[in-house]
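To make this tangible, we now present a fold written out as tokens:
***
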Amino acid sequence: MFGLKDPQTAFVKGWIVEELENNHILVQCDDGSQREVDAETVDKVNPAKFDKANDMAELTHLNEASVVHNLHMRYQADLIYTYSGLFLVTINPYCSLPIYTNEYINMYKGQSREETKPHIFAMADEAFRNLVEEGENQSILVTGESGAGKTENTKKVIQYLAAVANSESPVKNKLQHSTLSQQILRANPILEAFGNAQTVRNHNSSRFGKFIRIEFTRNGSIAGAFIDWYLLEKSRVVRLNAHERNYHIFYQLLKGADPTLKQEFLIEGLDVEDFAYTRDGHDTIVGVSDRDEWNSLVEAFNVMGFSEDNQMSILRTVAAVLHLGNITVVKESRSADQARLAPEARAQAERVCWKRMGRKGADPEQVLLAIDSLAKGIYERGFGDLVTRINRQLDRTGMGLDDSHFIGVLDIAGFEIFEENSFEQLCINYTNEKLQQFFNHHMFVLEQEEYAREKIEWKFIDFGHDLQPTIDLIELPNPIGIFSCLDEDCVMPKATDKSFTEKLHSLWDRKTPKYRASRLGQGFMLTHYAAEVEYSTEGWLEKNKDPMNDNITRLLAASSDPHVANLFSDCSEAGDDSGAIRSRVKKGLFRTVAQRH
């Protein structure tokens, strides 16, 4: 039996009925059809006894067809976890399965992989045992395409570690460790509310990357946790693609907050369609209640020890961002270029900003761009402050946990291929490309070096080599790569998205097999390890800039609201009074998104 590639089902089984010329064969497929194919394009199929194999490393014929067939057979039986040697392959079931209960936790606790079925709990237990018994820090990498289930499996790892570590704590410390474990678990609803959103591929897509360090004492008790975050997709705050939503928190606030809170935030009687930053996307997610999610968020805030004042400060900035999006700008007169606020927007702007932002004239488009930049800046800084507050609650030693043993779990936005791919997708896919290269080097190249040291005959294969040309094309400063070219054009006064694209074509089109000009619009095609992706470059110059006005940031640093002032404390200047802030224009350091990361 052989496996043949099929455009509908990926692969079909068949057997050879005739050998033809030019290394071609005639194959009788099990769907009843006959196909003439190149003999080099078919894969051998394993005997039926290997169906639903727990570990694909045990397959006699290990090829793409046999891997897909085995995963498909297991998936049909609700077996979503499968080993592949050292790795665990997971397929998202897109439904709830009763395989994460305390009974399952006890089933995997202290057991070797050979004694149990493949499961994310088995991987977490192996990391925990290695930490406790060998004293070496551990890391679990959760990677895959958008919608593959990375965030959910990350939560299952944390669930397991919290349960097992608490069970191994001394009796006198169980209450303390139980509280800490609950706080670690309840950090997730907060992070998801502010950092996750619905995309076309995923109802709860993480729009940022995070590395969660769970700290342990030498005997295996939880000592604390720390969360690093990366690359929040702040452009989502002001601009949505079709069939998507903004960050969950906006909808949870509008749907779940009580009337008193809504009145405090000036959103009483208003809904999703009343705000520019939420009206263009979906209002709801099928099967998800924003009101229930709001209640879970408030509960998580309380478990984390956030005071009522802290919660109000955090949520007030969220409401402020919504109000910023509703500010409208018009020209003062037909003959004037200077913009002014529409009468109905003036009071709203005063509620949000409290003080005059500046006196320099600007056209409406410039003002709207500045407002969007302010909204993105407030939200991003607010998110960073939120993570800092969570870390402060989870650090029980007060020493930054530097000397503790830890298990790290890396969860980043997965590889994305949408109908329309933009700057955000390039950043995400570039990150995944780098991560895949590191993974290949660490898991394969180092293993091959071990073979060489042990004098095992082995043909050296550089599994990371094929990824380097694409990485270079994106990041190299010389010859100029995509990011460097974009940064360069962001400071050129007459540069446009079109001129940037044309420059890229002149630099790379037909000069590398990894790049080619888009055939249908303004953009380019880039070959990644996962697939070839077509990127539209419309709006890239604006997205790559970080053009928050210095006068505005210093004004916010001097805000009478302590939370807002703290968010922009790095922008304040000692000795400045409000008059000086309004009257002086300072040229700040211009940094693009690419340069910041």
User: Anything to note?
Assistant: Residues 546-595 form one domain.
